[in-house]
């Protein structure tokens, strides 16, 4: 009986389909993360501008992202844009938009706090050396910020990878959805398939998230020296 | 003083933004009033592809086989529909939908037709237009072969297993209060209870018990069709009349060749086996005939459903008044 369950994974092109699903997952997460990092850095710097109105607007944006479940955002962008703005986005595009919207807010807040954590004397010493504002940012503040950011940014990325399972609800077939399809297709012929398929999906999530965690630890050590 | 003014300003700002933001969100989340225009039949023909929303994980109605191809009762019909409307089975473009967002897919014009085991209900009929039905479901009762329950009367004084929140629970509570119900939260528990003999029979959707009985020797479905009959029909966006009519005509004309019986043979029979009468599930030509097995309740429900359909087909000129909440 146990053997029968695992057979499902090797039937037809099932394992290939799982890997293809995983690729969709990674693609959405990575593209969104790249955008989030770029925009998040900008947002983090903007958030540190000592201006009440700017701070307030950033705060509102951040709160909206935190309060709204990602699923609601996905539905708003995927269905809402089609209904209200006449924009018929593909599921994957909608997913990237939502995850970037979310990631930018989270990343921005991380960058903001990392920037704040840099002691004031670092700025002062930079100015003392005759560097201008941008040079101080570029050569002194940012390198230190990045080191402090790494663990939380990787944490955000792995969270993003895992949250992509929601995109199945707007018709994007990612790894978990493929898994469910396989389980369902063999529902009558092979009822024990679920354990094996979910096991395989778990393993696949692990092998993409684990290297990222390792990488961040290695980089952290490297930067610490 | 200055601080006070600032505080007041800030508070007003917060209030205004919250209200504004809230109303934007609400209006965006609100399905009512605003609908993306669905493609007409002519536009679909010009494009050469019809977009059909189907399930990808509801075996045997819509599922993806081990080669990555979508299969099932709904898909079999979808391909035929594409062939007759556009000339080739390959002109069907299948989009995988989820149960909760089937209405949304139509309202946002992401698909032209939904063929995803879509049960006709009054609630849904307010938001989408249902075509003629092509399948029906009712309750079934499964029991051990050596003490097979063939009639509801056999259940008197016996223990009937049901799953909480299902139509079976409501039906038996309302119509047969004398039958003792043993209730479980999950299907698996209910089946285990039946296997252990903690109840004499188990009732839920007939498609479900039929498939289960097929897999479990020593058990049969003694009552294949009981209670209110629900119909399953294709759905299009509200107001897409010419497409709706085309689908209705198609369903009517397919009756001559008993197409849905063929569909049953190909897709459902391997799962449900020989023990079941196709007429318990299949609807030909959109006509639900309740005469053979129907309870009185089922009969009235049938005519209701039928008149609903015709009403829908005629009053389709008002597309823009869908309800706010969607069917999640």
TrEMBL record, chain A:
PROSITE patterns: ABC_TM1. Belongs to the binding-protein-dependent transport system permease family. InterPro entries: AA_ABC_transptr_permease_3TM, ArtM/GltK/GlnP/TcyL/YhdX-like, MetI-like, MetI-like_sf. GO terms for cellular component: ATP-binding cassette (ABC) transporter complex. Keywords: Cell membrane, Membrane, Transmembrane, Transmembrane helix, Transport. Coiled coil: none annotated. The keyword Translocase does not apply. GO terms for molecular function: transmembrane transporter activity. The chain crosses the membrane at residues 24-48, 60-81, 193-212. It is a multi-pass membrane protein. Its main location: membrane. This is ABC transporter permease subunit. The lineage of its organism: Bacteria, Bacillati, Bacillota, Clostridia, Lachnospirales. Pfam families: BPD_transp_1 (PF00528). Residues 22-216 form the ABC transmembrane type-1 domain. One of its GO terms (biological process) is amino acid transport. It is found in: Cell membrane.
